[in-house]
Amino acid sequence: xxxxxxxxxxxxxxxxxxxxxxxxxxxxxxxxxxxxxxxxxxxxxxxxxxxxxxxxxxxxxxxxxxxxxxxxxxxxxxxxxxxxxxxxxxxxxxxxxxxxxxxxxxxxxxxxxxxxxxxxxxxxxxxxxxxxxxxxxxxxxxxxxxxxxxxxxxxxxxxxxxxxxxxxxxxxxxxxxxxxxxxxxxxxxxxxxxxxxxxxxxx
Length: 203
Hints:
By secondary structure, this protein is an alpha/beta fold. The chain is built from 6 helices and 9 strands. The protein has helices at residues 22-28, 31-42, 59-67, 80-93, 128-141, 168-177; strands at residues 49-53, 72-77, 97-101, 114-120, 142-153, 155-156, 165-166, 181-191, 194-202.
């Protein structure tokens, strides 16, 4: 396991005080369609262990638990407020999902312990170094033959010095650099916020 240290992170909606608007925003922009497409591509099976990095308020794992199959699902996020909402959703619906506070680049999880790792609209928020650490952690916690499935934006929002451009090559390159195998773009989708690319890779 990697030791965690406190570090800056971008909360859902970009500001902590905007968190109550996050779920209404995702409904209006039909982000749920992206989540369903991501789950379809993940080819999940009963008995598998599934991890979502950057789970936010738990919408992906809630959708997974409600549709089946019966998997052991864990979500991590650094935002305590988002996790509180995720846990409340799971408890209200009696869904067997575990949520814990963690950074994607320092997962408090054992080596080779998950069959699938999911990431939805999260990687573009990370700087280059942080994204590299996160993907190395993904590789570490995946079992041999396990898979990573990603949905992310077609275009990279400006970061740092105002960079704005295609995220596709950056993410594909980062997946390769992490030593993951079978790196591929698996499809495209769209939401009201713009285009989305789906990726997969395996351990």
